[in-house]
Amino acid sequence: xxxxxxxxxxxxxxxxxxxxxxxxxxxxxxxxxxxxxxxxxxxxxxxxxxxxxxxxxxxxxxxxxxxxxxxxxxxxxxxxxxxxxxxxxxxxxxxxxxxxxxxxxxxxxxxxxxxxxxxxxxxxxxxxxxxxxxxxxxxxxxxxxxxxxxxxxxxxxxxxxxxxxxxxxxxxxxxxxxxxxxxxxxxxxxxxxx
Length: 194
Prior knowledge:
The protein folds into two domains: about 20-65, no CATH class; about 70-194, Nuclear Transport Factor 2, Chain: A. About 40% of the residues lie in helices and about 25% in strands. It contains six helices and eight strands; from the N terminus they run αββαααββαββββα. The protein has a six-stranded mixed sheet with strand order 4-3-8-7-6-5, with helices on both faces. A two-stranded antiparallel ribbon has the order 1-2. Helix 3 runs antiparallel to helix 4 and helix 4 (about 95-100) packs across helix 5. Residues about 5-15 have low confidence and may be disordered.
């Protein structure tokens, strides 16, 4: 057998690992796009289809990344709630107003079984004033603890070790846009038993 003929075989075993086969008609050739994950190692020959595929894949990756909350953003939201809690405890109206979106809303649920504000409070400044009033009326033995509430940064109020109120916050950017206040003992049951 001619030694040159043996060298002209497929040659896959002679190529270093990881090196692409650049011969026309092969998956690594620049004229063909072979993407991992295509069923059966399918190839896309049509340039328009190739562009559409790349755009679709890129768009899908962006949507997946956007749907996954960033750990950095979660930490930033928790920091905003922590700052709000500190300003609230210090009764610092200016700091509270600075942390609340001007169009923020606070909604409370007492279930008719606990005292709450009867209607939503609209506006950052109005919420700040209401929270300073809540801080002024705070009974002795009440503590505020930072907790995760329904996957959001939150604050839990305990009276002598018993959960009496849960606050959940929606944070957009560096401002609080919504506060949910739950004082309904029926809805706080899992907080007091677990």
